[in-house]
Amino acid sequence: MIGDETARRDLYVIWQSCLELFLYYLDSRKVVSKNDVIDLLVADRIMQTLSGECLGHVLSSEAQGWFKPDQLTDAIDVYLNSHFNVDSNDGKTQPRPIIRGIPAVQDP
Description:
108 residues, alpha+beta, 2 domains, 3-stranded antiparallel sheet, 3 strands, elongated
């Protein structure tokens, strides 16, 4: 079938384009090993979960290049620890972190 062959050929072209873009992305991030690829994919996935403010903090901290997951989580910890919300409970003030704009729930 001619239609099936054309669709198959188009699919191969799309896959080739995706692979070329991925390889360009890895090159632009200076990835040189399999472990770097894994670290980059994990770091990118973590960054997709961050609030806009936290993401801005991380991106401004990445002056010399992308953060590996351990460096990324350290930068996230610094941001979260410096942005505490104080809540009063029976006259006691307790710090509580704000995650994605929503105060985290603490156990009583």
